[in-house]
Design a protein that fits this description.
Strand order of the largest sheet: 4-5-6-7-8-9
Mean pLDDT: 80
Structural class: alpha+beta
Shape: globular
Strand content: 5-15%
Helix content: 40-55%
Radius of gyration: 24 Å
Order of helices and strands: EEHHEHHHHEHHHHHEEEEEH
Number of strands: 9
Number of helices: 12
Length: 387
């Protein structure tokens, strides 16, 4: 049975890090409290809280650098975030964790501060967000736009993250130009034979048109341009109400979409990664979504991006791992980094409180990613029982 809201609590980790990557004296060292995954696994709440904490430090640096004359005293949002950060420090010192109920109360207070700051007058919308805050832990429905790299604006996650001034991004995007050495020739004979039971013989013979004459990738891009979001694409894959040539064309289109989803089942593409890099500023903190996971992502520089590590496996005082690089689709060359963005090449040195060393964790992480990918494929192929 799922734990009640009173029973759930999140471990707190204090990370040492720096925004001044070349400062060897340690003068600009930061200590930031972040929350880690509880036993029920990752959730958008973790990404939101940690993005606010990391973003707070970035904001202070920008204010100091630009001599803007802004202080906590005359900025309600900064004042609210400072109070929240101090509370996390206090909770970590007391018992090492914070209860979900307490976290949601604090988040509710911050929402009111942010809403007041932007002078929003839609009280019904704010009441709706406050009422639905527990969904941040149990799960949010999001609808990725596979053309633009963002999300449907009217879902709770997008509204909430936007209220806090946080971009909400993913990298699961189709390339308008076919840059892969992949055959996209999909004709009726590639479709499962059972799917053609009601296709007339005359329509089936239409599939004998030479496949080379069909610009199937162009057709695929047109379909994505029309449907755009994952939910609409899923709906299209489930449609089965045409007859004759229309049915044949629909089957071919469904096959094309299914092939693209299968080829990109890790929910990240090269064009998506480039688009993400182009749309983010240096030293910007965003919430990044992939395979039903919400992450805190920090862009340090051009094609130099990092994901904040929030696994409880690293919750021990001696562990220096804070970031993991995020600069490739395969992830094979991604490394762990210290808070100062220095690569950690010797992983076995740190044994965490649960008895794992870092290389053990790498194996666990690989297995988890494979499971995430399997679940993503399951989600993408919900329609397959029909064929």
């Amino acid at each position: 049975n799922p734990a009640s809201i009173e029973e759930v609590r999140f471990p707190i980790r204090i990370i040492d890090w720096s925004l001044d990557y070349y400062n060897e004296k340690g003068e600009d060292k930061l200590k930031s409290p972040i929350i880690l995954q509880d036993k029920n696994g990752p959730c958008p709440l973790i990404a939101l809280i940690n993005s606010l904490v990391i973003g707070y430090e970035v904001s202070l640096k920008k204010i100091a650098t630009n001599n803007m004359g802004i202080t906590h005293d005359n900025d309600q949002k900064l004042n609210g975030l400072r109070g929240f950060k101090e509370l996390l420090f206090q909770m970590e010192a007391n018992n090492g964790f914070i209860e979900l109920k307490k976290l949601l109360e604090q988040l509710g207070d911050l929402i009111l501060i942010y809403n007041n700051e932007i002078h929003a007058d839609d009280q019904d919308e704010i009441d709706k967000i406050l009422t639905n805050l527990p969904l941040l832990h149990t799960g949010l429905n999001v609808d990725p736009n596979l053309l633009k790299g963002n999300f449907v604006k009217d879902d709770l996650a997008s509204q909430l993250f936007e209220l806090f001034g946080l971009k909400f991004k993913h990298g699961w995007v189709i390339d308008p130009i076919d840059n892969e050495d992949i055959k996209w020739n999909v004709s009726a004979r590639h479709v499962h034979s059972d799917s053609q039971d009601h296709v007339p013989e005359s329509a089936r013979s239409h599939s004998h048109t030479p496949e080379s004459e069909q610009d199937n990738y162009g057709k695929l891009v047109e379909l994505f341009d029309k449907l755009q979001t994952f939910d609409k694409i899923q709906d299209y894959l489930l449609i089965d109400d045409e007859q004759g040539l229309e049915k044949l064309e629909k089957l071919q289109n469904q096959r094309l979409i299914s092939k693209w989803l299968e080829l990109n089942k890790t929910q990240l593409t090269s064009i998506g990664l480039k688009k993400l890099n182009n749309e983010l500023h240096d030293e910007e903190v965003v919430i990044f979504f992939r395979n039903n996971h919400f992450n805190t992502l920090f862009k340090k520089g051009d094609m130099d991006m990092y994901l904040l590590i929030t696994d409880t496996a690293f919750n021990n005082k001696s562990n220096k791992i804070v970031w993991q690089s995020f600069n490739s689709v395969s992830g094979k060359d991604d490394l762990f980094f210290t808070g100062d963005f220095l690569p950690i090449l010797e992983l076995d040195a740190n044994i965490n409180d649960e008895g794992y060393n870092d290389s053990d964790y790498l194996l666990l992480k690989q297995l988890q990613e494979e499971e995430d990918e399997r679940l993503a494929v399951q989600m993408q192929h919900a329609f397959s029982k029909k064929s």
